[in-house]
C-alpha cells in the first residue's frame, strides 16, 4: 500500500484523532486492528513528547499488547483496575444506531469485555464501514470452543445463517483466537434485530462470544476524504 492510499490515510487520521482525546492519568482500553494501531502509535508519540503523562493501557488482544510495548504504553490487567476511563477500538461495520460488527481480527471476545467496561467507547472507522443495516457487507464472526464447532454450525444453519470456518492465512488449518478457540463467519440474509441475535447466538452451547456490539459505542469517529482532503466526522 502506498502512503497516498486513501483508506490508509483515513485510518491514520481517525486513529490519531482518537489518541488526541486521551487525557493524562487515564486508564485506556486499547483496541485491535489496523486503525487502532495508529491510535497506539500516536499515544506512544504523545507519551514520548511529554504532552501525555501517566496513562495505563488495557490490551484487547495479543496484537495490541505487542504494539503497546513497542510504543512504550504501560499495560495493566483487568484485575489491577477498578474503572476504565476510555476505550478506543475499530469496527468492521457501524449502523445508524452506533451498533457494530467487530471481530475481523478475531479479537471480538476480549474487545467486548474491555470496550463495555470503559466509561466511554470511541470507535474509529473509515467511511467504508458505515452501513444502513448490519451484516450487509461483513460476515458476523462467532468465537466457538473447538469441540463444539459442528453442533454450533448446525444450530446456526437452523437459525437461517450460513456459517464458514475461518481459515488461517500463511497457516494451514483454522484461525485460532488468543483464547485458543476457532471463529466461524456467518452470513445472515438480514439482521433485523441485532440485540436479539446477539443474545440468541451467545445462548448456543459452545459459543463464547459473537461480534455484535449493541449499545456499547458512545462516539464514532469517521475518517473521510472530501475534495481530496482527509477530515474527521463525529457521530455521538
Ligand atoms: O474487530 C476488530 C478485530 O477483532 C477490528 O477492530 C476490526 O476488524 C477493524 O479492523 P481495522 O481497523 O483493521 O479495519
From TrEMBL:
It comes from the Bacteria. GO terms for biological process: D-ribose metabolic process; pentose-phosphate shunt, non-oxidative branch. The active site is at 111 (proton acceptor). Pathway: Carbohydrate degradation; pentose phosphate pathway; D-ribose 5-phosphate from D-ribulose 5-phosphate (non-oxidative stage): step 1/1. It catalyses: aldehydo-D-ribose 5-phosphate = D-ribulose 5-phosphate. One of its GO terms (cellular component) is cytosol. Keywords: Isomerase. InterPro entries: NagB/RpiA_transferase-like (IPR037171), Ribose5P_isomerase_typA_subgr (IPR020672), Ribose5P_isomerase_type_A (IPR004788). Its EC number is 5.3.1.6. It holds the Pfam family Rib_5-P_isom_A. Homodimer. NCBIfam families: PRK00702.1, rpiA. Catalyzes the reversible conversion of ribose-5-phosphate to ribulose 5-phosphate. This is Ribose-5-phosphate isomerase A. It comes from Lyngbya aestuarii BL J.
Amino acid at each position: 500500500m502506498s502512503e497516498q492510499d486513501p483508506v490508509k490515510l483515513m485510518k491514520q487520521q481517525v486513529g490519531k484523532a482518537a489518541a488526541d482525546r486521551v487525557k493524562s492519568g487515564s486508564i485506556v482500553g486499547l483496541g485491535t486492528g489496523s486503525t487502532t494501531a495508529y491510535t497506539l502509535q500516536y499515544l506512544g508519540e504523545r507519551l514520548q513528547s511529554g504532552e501525555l503523562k501517566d496513562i495505563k493501557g488495557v490490551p484487547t488482544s495479543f496484537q495490541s499488547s505487542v504494539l503497546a510495548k513497542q510504543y512504550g504504553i504501560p499495560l495493566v490487567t483487568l484485575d489491577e483496575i477498578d474503572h476504565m476511563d476510555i476505550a478506543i477500538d475499530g469496527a468492521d461495520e457501524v449502523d445508524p444506531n452506533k451498533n457494530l460488527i467487530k471481530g475481523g481480527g478475531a479479537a471480538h471476545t476480549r474487545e467486548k469485555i474491555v470496550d463495555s467496561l470503559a466509561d466511554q467507547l470511541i470507535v474509529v472507522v473509515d467511511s467504508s464501514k458505515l452501513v444502513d443495516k448490519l451484516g450487509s457487507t461483513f460476515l458476523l464472526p462467532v468465537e466457538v470452543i473447538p469441540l463444539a464447532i459442528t453442533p454450533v454450525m448446525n444450530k446456526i444453519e437452523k437459525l437461517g445463517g450460513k456459517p464458514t470456518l475461518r481459515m488461517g492465512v500463511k497457516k494451514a488449518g483454522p484461525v485460532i483466537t488468543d483464547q485458543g478457540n476457532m471463529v466461524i463467519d456467518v452470513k445472515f440474509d438480514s439482521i433485523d434485530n441485532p440485540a436479539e441475535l446477539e443474545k440468541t447466538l451467545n445462548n448456543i452451547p459452545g459459543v463464547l462470544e459473537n461480534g455484535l456490539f449493541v449499545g456499547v459505542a458512545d462516539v464514532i469517529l469517521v475518517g473521510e476524504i472530501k475534495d481530496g482532503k482527509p477530515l474527521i466526522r463525529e457521530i455521538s
